[in-house]
Structures are given as C-alpha cells and as structure tokens.
Amino acid sequence: xxITYLTQGLHxxxxxxxxxxATVFGSRRRSYREFVGRVSRLAGGLQQLGLAPGDRVxxxxxxxxxxxxxxxxxxxxxxxxxxxxxxxxAREIAYALEDCQTxxxxxxxxxxxxxxxxxxxxxxxxxxxxxxxxxxxxxMFSYEQLIADNPPVPDAVRxxxxxxxxxxxxxxxxxxxxxxxxxxxxxxxxxxxxxxxxLPQHSALHVAPMFHMADGMFLLAQTLRGNTQVVLPNFDPxxxxxxxxxxxxxxxxxxxxMIQMIVDHPGIGAADLGALRRIVYGASPISxxxxxxxxxRLPGVDxxxxxxxxxxxxxxxxxxxxxxxxxxxAAGRLRSAGQPSWFVDVRIVSEDGRDAAPGTVGExxxxxxxxxxxxxxxxxxxxxxxxxxWLHTGDGGxxxxxxxxxxxxxxxDMIVSGGENVYSAEVENAIAQHPAVAACAVIGIPxxxxxxxxxxxxxxxxxxxxxxxxxxxxxxxELIAGYKCPRSLEVRKDLPLSGAGKVLKTQLREPYWKDRGxxxx
Amino acid sequence: xxITYLTQGLHxxxxxxxxxxATVFGSRRRSYREFVGRVSRLAGGLQQLGLAPGDRVxxxxxxxxxxxxxxxxxxxxxxxxxxxxxxxxAREIAYALEDCQTxxxxxxxxxxxxxxxxxxxxxxxxxxxxxxxxxxxxxMFSYEQLIADNPPVPDAVRxxxxxxxxxxxxxxxxxxxxxxxxxxxxxxxxxxxxxxxxLPQHSALHVAPMFHMADGMFLLAQTLRGNTQVVLPNFDPxxxxxxxxxxxxxxxxxxxxMIQMIVDHPGIGAADLGALRRIVYGASPISxxxxxxxxxRLPGVDxxxxxxxxxxxxxxxxxxxxxxxxxxxAAGRLRSAGQPSWFVDVRIVSEDGRDAAPGTVGExxxxxxxxxxxxxxxxxxxxxxxxxxWLHTGDGGxxxxxxxxxxxxxxxDMIVSGGENVYSAEVENAIAQHPAVAACAVIGIPxxxxxxxxxxxxxxxxxxxxxxxxxxxxxxxELIAGYKCPRSLEVRKDLPLSGAGKVLKTQLREPYWKDRGxxxx
Lengths: 521, 521
Description:
The structure is a homodimer.
Chain A: H1 8-16, E1 21-25, E2 28-31, H2 32-48, E3 56-60, H3 65-77, E4 80-83, H4 90-99, E5 104-107, H5 115-121, E6 127-130, E7 141-142, H6 143-149, E8 163-169, E9 177-182, H7 183-197, E10 203-206, H8 213-225, E11 229-231, H9 237-246, E12 249-254, H10 256-263, E13 278-281, H11 288-297, E14 302-308, E15 315-319, H12 326-330, E16 339-340, E17 345-349, E18 362-367, E19 374-375, H13 379-385, E20 391-399, E21 405-410, E22 415-417, E23 420-422, H14 424-432, E24 437-447, E25 451-460, H15 469-477, E26 488-492, H16 505-513
Parallel strand pairs in A: 1-11, 3-4, 3-5, 5-6, 6-7, 10-11, 10-12, 12-13, 13-14, 25-26
Antiparallel strand pairs in A: 1-2, 8-9, 9-19, 14-15, 15-16, 17-18, 18-20, 20-21, 22-23, 24-25
Helix pairs in contact in A: 2-3, 2-6, 7-8, 10-11
C-alpha cells in the first residue's frame, strides 16, 4: 500500500505554507495557493480537452513559470509529460511526439510558429495549447483561458509505478529514445536529493532548460521542499547575474560553460550575489581555472557536481562541496564525478560483463530507485541497457579506492591513436589549464599514420592571444603523455552544446569524417 | 526496474568508508568493514541452518551491537525479521512467534532462560541461536560460532515489495497484530528521515528498545547515513549520561520519560555532554517543564518530536527544533505533534468518514510511502485499518490552520464525563506543569454521578511534597475547564510503560474497571 506520488508536495504546500511564493518569472510572482489553484484548474482544462489517464502531453517551450505549472497540471490530470528538446529540428521533435503517440501539445510563443509544420508531420496530434501572454493563434486553445474557464478538479493521484514522464535522450549519441520514468522513479530521486540540491528556504534558479531531466529533477526537489523557484526563459549571463541579485537566489543549477560565462561577464563586478549559497552543476567536471575564478569572486558559494543519465532519473554520483576545496583538489577529486549518490549502486564492468579490477577503466553501470522502466516501445534497446538489472551507461570510468568515480570518457568518444587509447576528457582537462582557453573539446580525426589523431577545438578567453597548435602541445606535454597531446588545433567562437550543456562532439567530428566509414553516432 | 533495498547502505559503506566505526557496545568497537563481514558470514550461517527466502527470524534480545548485525544479516540472507517485544510475557511472545510461523529464533543471554518454555509453546520453532558472550546452552547454536564457521555469502538483495519485517504492535490497545513492512516501506521512510534524525558524521545512541519500530527506523537511517551507532543494553540514566559523554554522542532517540529521568539525575551535573546536538523523541509530547530543565542544562541541544505508528513505518508528523523555541512555544505548538513529515498526507475524518471541519477533532488518517502492506494473516483488520487507501490511526486529533497536528487522545482513551468529552492528554498537560509532578497519566474511572470521572495518576519529583487531590485540582483549574480537572488522585513510584514508552493505561484502569462491563482494551 506504500504510496509515492509527485503532486504530494503541492498538497503539503497547501496545508503548511500556502502563502509562500512558489514561482517568480519576470515581474510575475505566485504563491503556492495560486500555483496549486492554477494547476488544478489547468488539469481540469486538460481533462475537458479529452486527456485520459496515461495520455502523453508534449511541452515545447522555453523556461517559464508555466512550464512548472505544466509538469504538475499534467500529473494532477492523470497524464504523462513529454518535455521536448527545444534545440531540436522540427523533424526530430516530430519523431519524439509521434514515437510515444503524444496527443496534446503545449507550445509557448517562441515555438508557436512551428506548430503548422508539426501538425502535418505528427498524425496523432489532436490538440495544441498555446501558453503565452499574447492572444492564441487560430486553432490553438489558450492556456490562460483553460485556467479561467475550468473549475479545479481533484488530483488524479497517479502514483508508484504509473508512468510520469517520457524524456527523449539524444544529442551526443545515437537516435533519440524515450526514457520512461515512473512516479516512483522521480519521487525517489527527488526525495534523496533534497539535502544536496534543495536547501531549506533558499530560492532556486532555473536557467538550464526545464525540458532536460537535470533541471527537471532540480524542479521536483525544490517543489517537494516548498522553495521559491525563480525562472529565466533561457541562458543569458547578464540576466542570471541580475536575477541572482534581485531575487536573492540561494541555489542555481548550471553547467560549467554557463559558470564560466557568468564569472567572466563584466556585469558580475558590481552585483551583490551574497544570497547565493550553492551552485549545482553537471554535464561535465569543472576546470580548476573556472572554479578558482568563481571561488575568488563568490567566496560564500559552494559547489556540488552531479553526474548522471536520464535513464537514472538522473543521479548516479555526487561530488560534494568539501571535494571542491583544497584537500579534495589536492587529492585530484575535482576531476572525478564524486561518489555514488544516495541509494545508488555503481560498478565498473569490463567487456565480458565481469567486475573490472579496482582502478581499471570499464563501463560504468548503476542501479537504484531512479532506474528507468525502459525505453518507450524499444524492448530490445531496453533489454540491452538494463541487462542483468543494471543500467549500462555507455560511459567509461573507474572507481578509486574510496569509491570516487572517474569518468574517463563516453565510451564512443574514446580516441584510438597508434594503438593507444586516448580518453578525450583527460586531454581536455590539460588544455583547459592553458590561460588563454575558455572552453575546449577534444575529438579524434582521421590520420593516415595513426588511424586517428587527437584534435583540439578551443574557445579563447577575451583579451588573450590565441595559442598556436605547437604552443598548446607544449603546454599539454607538461601535463600528459606525448601521445595524448593534440596534433591539431581549431579555434572557434563557441562550442555546439546539447540541451544538457554537453558539447556536441558529433557536430565537431562531422566535417572530418563525413566521407569516411567510421560511425560518428 | 526501480530498486530499493535495505542492505544498500552496507555496500555504500564498504565502498566509501570501510574503516569508519559502525558499532560501539561497551568496550567493543567494530568498523563498517568488520560489521559487513560479520553480517555476510552470519547470513551464511542462517542459510546453512535452513533459512529460505522470506522466512521469519525472531529476535528476542536486549539492545546490543549484535541486534544491529541481526537486522542486516537476516535481510542479507533473504529473511524477514520479527523483532520481539522483550517486555511481553512468554505467552504473548509465543503468540507473536507462532502467528507468523517464525522458524528461527535468536535470543541473548538475558532471554535464554525463556527458550525452554517458548519451544514448548511454539510448534513451528525449529532452531534457536544464542547471541551472547558466554557459552551457548545445550540445544542452541552459537551466534559467534556461526560467524566463525561460515564464509561470507552474497547479499540476497531482497528489495522493493519483498517483506522485510513483521513488527507486532500491542501494549496500549487490543490484541497484538503483526505489521508487515516491505523493504520499500522501510527504505522510503529512512530516506526521508535522514536529514532530521541522522545528522552527518554524528554518532547516534540506541537506548530505546531496538525491537520497536521507532528505534528500528532510527537504526536504518543511521546506517544509510553511515554514522557510528552506540548501543546500550537498556535504559539507565547514569549509563546514558556517561555514554553520551565518553562516546561524544551527537543524536539520541528517547521518550519524554527518559529525558526527564536523565535531566533530573544527579550524574548530569559534572558530565560533559557538549557533543550532543539533537534529541529525537516520540511516544508523547514533552512537557514544558521537562523541556525547560533540559534546555537549561543542555543549551546546545535541539529537540525534534516524531509522531507515528508502526503501521506507517512509523513517521506521520514531525515537530521541528524551531517549534521547541520561544516563538513556537508561544504559539502553543509544543503540545502538537508537528506537521506531516515528508511525503506523508494527513487528514482528519469524522465518524462518517468525511473530512472533519478545520480545527474539529476527528480520527487522524494518513498515507505515504511507509504505509504497511497489512497485518499478517488478518485480512479483515487490514481492510479496516487501510480502508479507502488511508491508514486509520485510531488517534483523535485536529489540524490547525498551518497544518500542525494536535493529538488530543487515543480515541479509546477519551473520557466521557457528564456528557462532556475529556481528552486525557489535555489534562495531563495541565498536571505536568505542577512543580511536584515528574510524570503523570489521566484515565476515566467509574463514577455513579457522571458515568466516568477524571482520575490522575502521578509520579512525584524527588524532594517535593506530594500534592493533595485538592491542591492538584486547584492547580489545574487555573489552566483548564473545571469538568476536565481530576476528581481523584493516585501517587505511584512509577508508571507502567509499553516497549514504545507509552503509558500502559490499560493497567492503570484495570483495578477500577475489572468487575464492570466497560471494555478497557
């Protein structure tokens, strides 16, 4: 009879602190009482539009307070959310909607123009809701009108193994797959993350995309805790600085690239960011250089890295604040992804499926309360990913004697050069320490002699002279073995990023490999 | 595929901090590495003795480090623990063992003498293990020998809805019922309680009985957190004071009666209890008088009250540290059981099953991740207790406008006097404020005129003059309505307590009601 459900936090808020501010979006502020009122009316609207229990509702929108309302209204109504990656092409979005038979789609003003195209591509799409301040385009229902016109309905209390969301993964590897996460999956991980990512009575900032599992989990934890959530539509360093200051944001979820852009932004000089206590970051380790600059500017802030995968909802490991300070850094832990997070088991397995010897690189596998139900409509891929009751991450890594997990690379990102395995993360770490480098990525490119050669792509820091390939090699030679150092160099204005903030190496590799046989997946 | 299991914390400890001290019992200290080693060997011993997955193992023992090992070894082996109430008679214990067909029983030295009687009464009992330092009596297996003789076995990883424990409830009401709690029940509540009862890197003290769900949950949370657990065999205020001091205990789970005996004990004068940060208490609210004395002596300690029931594994609500300080006390919250704890829904229902109006007394019902699977072999009682998907506590209470839960009485403890309902808790609160009162209980006794009359039973504080019935009435008259004040008074050396530290009112009532028709259940 055990019952766990995601809307529980709203009932708690109504009972205990209805007048606390739930959401802030620009000048719009809503209390938990207003938030739950809107959620329960919007749920009524969804049901009135034909939503049946378990139906998928797509959300294609920039971040907003309405996105938060949608997560909860869809569950309150009994539905399943399908948060769509806004950086995808219409073709890719249509695939994600069609694949899991999404019948209802919510779009904001930014994506309203894509609807005509999507409706033609997605045959199951019956209804489109326009979530914006402006008038709704013809053929779309108005989000605000649905709230105004419908009385509140009772919570459907979908719970436990009921499907809560389908999150399409894509970006750095392969074709998109719909990760099915239950109420229990999401609830368990949020419950286990309260202490680390949802500090009591601290406002939280959403600037990473809310369609992504990382910010999705951040959102669930904040709501369970009953914190105030401040939402920015998308990432702009000046707006982040201004908002942290004006809204006294206590916790922010960012990716290292964002942290770098914030701390290097001139606007940070005069801002009062004294309320900020914790930066939660993911997608990749942070470079010592960016960390140093951030700590110097924001001495009251601590850092917490979360490593995970959508398939684990998404937490696998956590690198805590202590490990970002002197002792942890001296022990080299800043390059790790931390220790397995609460209730998660992590093993390293070699290709034959057996446990790798301690310190040896193998595939990272994990199990825990967040482990997905499977990929939508992909039983074969599900069996492969979950074989033996463990989620196979596809990431290569090792565990040190104290259980710190070091991700050496996405398995597919490994570069094989002259018979030696080169893990690009290690090379990137070396390059990032160069004073002129703001961001970097390392890929393998075709090489007649070595099979693959290590190739560096960098973004320069403003005011610094671009390094030459030779000077960068010399810098790296001080830090890593010669065969790992980049043979060639490309300087760009920015790196292509996935919704999760991961560098899209596929795009970087494409020009080099497009006429060759190597799979660049 | 979501997986939650109770032995997960041990794997975590082995990976991340094997050398940390797991248990302290007298002069015996064991690291997590030793602890898990003994658990996995003892599990091997249990399997070798014929334990099959799902088999019940009874534990009849005072608190010890071995009790902690047993919880985990039984799960590691695939079994289900049946922790037996040590205060019960042989007849009652035999009932609990026979009822759920417990085949294996572990006893310590204290209870070894009861085995002969139990074996004759309990036909399903096949095997008895003696967990003690002395040689095992004839016919019993030696706990230490099982560990010495058996190699470690792999963790059975019983998980999710697998039954983890059967906890027999009894004491204050009715016949004993076996509360079935799954791995998921216990794991969910422990996970949600980490922040409140298992402070990071603070040693925890077990002095409340480990067979009881309250200390059982405390134990699970400490193990998940990876804290050091200090175990005392039973309650002795001098030993508690000495142990908190010598082991630098940070968190202790106590009942108000214990707190009063500790703070009023002369030994507290010279002791250094500076490590103690938090006292978690339950079973009943604490009196302001005892709280004042404790806060004056231990200014660095905060207080957290947990209210619950075995059937909820056991958390229902929590009264946090702030509410024990001036503002919360001024608002009268010290008499409450706090707000619903994480992930738990609480409602107050009237006799017709509908929600009671706010502020109105009704039955407290709750649901959440800890809600039991049911009562062993009692489908009718299970249906009644869990009707409508909510656990019916049998306690009378109300919710204030901010969601604070006030337990006015066990429903059956309500006294009806002259047509007025008297909730004994309110009377007890008034009496407890009398300077000469150390502890008290209020019951209804037969009265020719009023049906029932309010009767007070008190324990006096040393060095104070016993109050007369008349002076106690006058004291109460200042605080509560006249019809609620005690008509008669009985002074005792101590109050009969259940294993959970609740006053056994049944025993207090018995002499007055034994020749009458009223059910004293």
